[in-house]
Every structure is written in structure tokens, then in C-alpha cells.
Design a protein that fits this description.
There is one protein chain. This protein is α+β, with helices and mostly antiparallel strands. The protein has helices at about 20, 25-40, 50-55, 70-80, 130-135, 155-160, 170-180, 180-195, 200-210, 220-230, 235-245, 260-270, 280-285, 290-300, 305-315, 325-330, 340-355, 355-365, 375-380, 385-400, 410-420; strands at about 10-15, 45, 65, 85, 95-100, 105-110, 110-115, 120-125, 145, 150, 425, 430. The protein has an 8-stranded mixed β-sheet with strand order 1-10-9-2-3-6-5-4. A two-stranded antiparallel ribbon has the order 7-8. A hairpin with a 2-residue loop joins strand 11 and strand 12. The model has no long low-confidence stretch (mean pLDDT about 95).
């Protein structure tokens, strides 16, 4: 514990007593409380759930902190015939109890970090609530809540929450160096808590900027979880620009000098009351499809996210008429990326990217017309089954789209021999070309 860190000697700041607080007491939670009480182990609600309740929000899940060690919890739950799941958490001090086969409760032993490397911490168990609160990242996440409604706040997180301030526990530089991911968590929680898009503490921002190099050793998956949540929250664009100002760009896969002009264009012209995919927002900071692949290499995006980002960047480079609905209807037939069922969603996101409100709303309502040819018809006309039939379907659908979806079955079948010839299909079989 740093000697210069200011903390409360008496941490109880308020007693919560309202319908929201009472609503969390399910029969399963009451049973969990009874068990800990029976074995004389103190347990409290910890972290985010406390923050949400203070803000008047019902928490999505409850996490618990306790003086009981993992071994003591296992012995206790075994004695009460309580099933325990996800035992991988035990090495971090977490035991997950499943009560009545209805609810899971993560219960973590109080701990202190005795060694950190910027990514992982070596921990030691403690029975001191102050020391456990001191190891947490932000003051608003370091509070505990007793089951009698007592809010335990050692580091003035309660006041910070009421004032909508995001502040590190104790020394910000030290907290960040313990886990550099806390840089991104700062921005995520700023978007969740703050009531002004640009009311950062300048000293905190300076410390963040001085530590961004530490992000290079954080996994892309962990980085993307935080960045995505920031982009899904309030002030997404303002916070992304602030991150860029801090020099974070290249450590999260973006160009070292991102496309700020394009991003500001999107920010200023966003379609109102429409939810943007996080990928659509971050794509505005890129220049080329190659940039999209670099982002994927760093962040390890899902296949859907990767394909959406590539689709946006590839489409942006095209010379099509972006003022016509037909252009985007035809795009829905493109097959160069993504699963066919996803492509219309990609096109809708691209329209959001372009900020084309009227065209977006029209395409959203548009249903792709029924394609006039089925697989049985193609087989009758010499098309082999399997993956190659999918390729032929795609080729014919592209022709159909170019003809404004007006081509009949007979008109499309006229195109089939040419496609079969291009694919080297003879007598219903694809013939491999001889090597030269």
C-alpha cells in the first residue's frame, strides 16, 4: 500500500435501501448468503455491480469478494452439496458456485498483487478489504456492498461516480504499469460514466500517453474487447480521437497516422438514432483494404468482423454510383467476401459508413427478390453438384443483379454454357487443366 494514497479510515459512506437494491436478492443469492454466514466468512458484492447500483442501474451479474480462501470455499460448498463450475478460476482465487441449478456466483478471495509484469499479476490472499480495494484499477470499480446495504468505499469512488469522474486508484502511473490494458479500460469507463465528452484530467491523459508502448505486449483479443466496448458506448468518436491523440493507434492495429479526416466526416454526419457496428466506426480510420487486414492481424477479429471491415474498405474504393439505390441492391449479390446471408448486413453498414440516411432506410426495407433458378434446374443443364454449383449460382446472381433483378430463368440459362466453359465443366464434371 502506497503511504501517500489517500483513503477513508471509515469506509462506509452510505446505506442503500431501495427497490433496486432489494431486487437483486433472488432465492439463490439468499441461500449463498446463508452459507457464508453459517461458516462465518464475510462476503460482499464487489466491483461493477456496486457501481451500477449506485448509478440506479440493475447489474447484469453479481461478483463477490470474500475473506474465505479457495480451499475454504471448496470445503464449505462440498459440505453443503453445492456444485462448483469453471474451476480454472481457482488459481486467481475465484470459485464459482452454482445454486439450485439456476444462478452462478463468482466468489473471489481478497488478494494483493505482489508482482506484476504489465499483463499478469502474482497474487497473495489477504483478509484486508482495504488492500484488495487498493489493487483495483479505478476508484469507481473499487467499492464493495454489504448485504445490509452498506456501501464500502475506501478511495472516494462514490464521490467520483456522483461527479462522473474516472480516476485511477492511487498513483495512475503505477496502476497502468501493473496492467497496460487499464489504459483502454480508462476510456471504456469514461464513455460509460462521464457526462461530458472531453472533460478528462489532463495529468491522467499525460500519464496514459507516456505508457502507450506497454500495449504492444497485450494480446489483440483483450485489446479488441475493450476498444469494441468503447465504440459501443457514449462519446465513441470523441474517445477514439482522444486515444489517437495519446498515440495508441499503432498498438491497436491502426495506421500510425489514422484517417482522421474520414473519421471526422463520419462523426459529423452519422445517421441519427441508428446503431453503428464497431467495425464500421473503426473502418473510418483506415485508408485501404490492406489496412483492414493489418487490423485483423493485430486484433484477431471474428470472421464476420474481418469480412465486414474488408467489405467496407473494398467497396469504398469502387467507382460505382453511390447515389442510387440500385447500386446497393446489386452489392447485396457480391460474393467476393463473407457469407451470402451476411452480405446485405454489410451493405447496410456501408451505407451507414457513407451516411446515406435515405438510401439506408430504403435498403433496410428492401427484400432481395426470389432468384428464378434452383439447383435441380442447374443439374439438368449440366452443372455438377457440390461447391462448384455454389460458384455457378453466384455468377448467375451477379448477372441477375446487373439486369436489375429482371432476368427470367430462360434468360439466365442462356448465360450458363459460357460460365460452364469458363469453369472447364464438361459433361457435368469439372475437368482439371493439365499442367504446362
Amino acid at each position: 500500500m502506497d503511504p501517500d494514497v489517500k483513503y477513508r479510515e471509515n469506509p462506509v459512506v452510505k446505506k442503500m435501501d431501495n427497490d433496486l437494491f432489494r431486487s437483486i436478492f433472488t432465492p439463490e443469492l439468499k441461500y449463498l448468503i446463508e452459507i457464508f454466514s453459517k461458516y462465518n466468512y464475510e462476503v460482499r458484492i464487489a466491483g461493477g455491480a456496486v457501481r451500477d447500483l449506485v448509478m440506479g442501474k440493475k447489474p447484469t451479474d453479481l461478483d463477490f469478494a470474500t475473506v474465505a480462501t479457495p480451499e475454504e470455499m471448496k470445503k464449505m460448498f462440498d459440505a453443503e452439496n453445492i456444485r462448483m463450475i469453471n474451476m480454472n478460476g481457482e488459481k486467481h482465487g475465484t470459485i464459482t458456485a452454482r445454486i439450485n441449478n439456476q444462478e452462478n456466483f463468482e466468489c473471489t478471495t481478497l488478494r494483493v498483487d505482489i508482482a506484476t509484469d504489465g499483463r499478469h499479476a502474482e497474487v497473495e490472499f489477504t483478509k484486508d478489504w482495504l488492500l484488495d480495494a487498493n489493487r483495483r484499477d479505478l476508484t469507481i470499480n473499487s467499492m464493495f456492498l454489504g448485504f445490509d446495504g452498506s456501501i464500502f468505499d475506501y478511495f472516494y469512488g462514490y464521490e467520483d461516480l456522483l461527479e462522473r469522474k474516472v480516476r485511477f486508484v492511487g498513483n495512475a502511473d503505477k496502476r497502468i504499469k501493473e496492467d497496460f490494458l487499464r489504459i483502454l479500460r480508462y476510456f471504456r469507463f469514461y464513455g460509460r460514466i462521464a457526462d461530458d465528452p472531453d472533460k478528462h484530467d489532463e495529468k491522467t491523459i499525460e500519464i496514459i500517453a507516456n505508457n502507450v508502448d506497454g500495449l504492444q505486449n497485450i494480446s489483440g483479443e483483450r485489446i479488441w474487447v475493450e476498444v469494441k466496448k468503447t465504440l459501443q458506448g457514449k462519446y465513441a468518436e470523441e474517445l477514439m480521437l482522444k486515444m489517437v491523440d495519446c498515440g495508441i493507434s499503432k498498438f491497436i492495429g491502426l495506421p500510425e497516422n489514422p484517417n482522421i479526416e474520414e473519421f471526422k466526416r463520419l462523426k459529423e454526419n452519422k445517421i441519427p438514432n441508428v446503431e453503428y457496428n464497431s467495425i464500421t466506426l473503426i473502418s473510418a480510420l483506415l485508408y485501404t483494404p490492406e489496412d483492414a487486414f493489418k487490423v485483423h492481424e493485430r486484433l484477431k477479429l471474428s470472421a464476420y468482423e474481418r469480412d465486414l471491415m474488408y467489405f467496407i474498405m473494398k467497396s469504398k474504393e469502387s467507382d460505382q454510383d453511390f447515389d442510387k439505390l440500385l447500386t446497393f441492391q446489386q452489392m447485396c449479390m457480391q460474393t467476393f467476401v463473407g457469407k451470402p446471408k451476411d452480405v446485405k448486413e454489410y451493405v447496410e453498414e456501408f451505407l451507414k459508413f457513407l451516411c446515406k440516411k435515405d438510401l439506408y432506410e430504403k435498403l433496410k426495407e428492401w427484400e432481395i427478390p426470389r432468384f428464378p433458378i434452383d439447383g435441380a434446374t442447374l443439374k439438368k443443364h449440366g452443372c455438377p453438384s457440390g461447391k462448384i454449383m455454389g460458384v455457378i449460382f453466384c455468377r448467375l446472381k451477379e448477372i441477375w443483379a446487373k439486369n436489375e433483378f429482371k432476368s427470367t430463368s430462360d434468360e439466365l440459362l442462356i448465360e450458363l454454357p459460357k460460365i460452364l466453359n469458363e469453369l472447364n465443366i464438361v459433361d457435368g464434371k469439372q475437368v482439371k487443366k493439365a499442367r504446362t
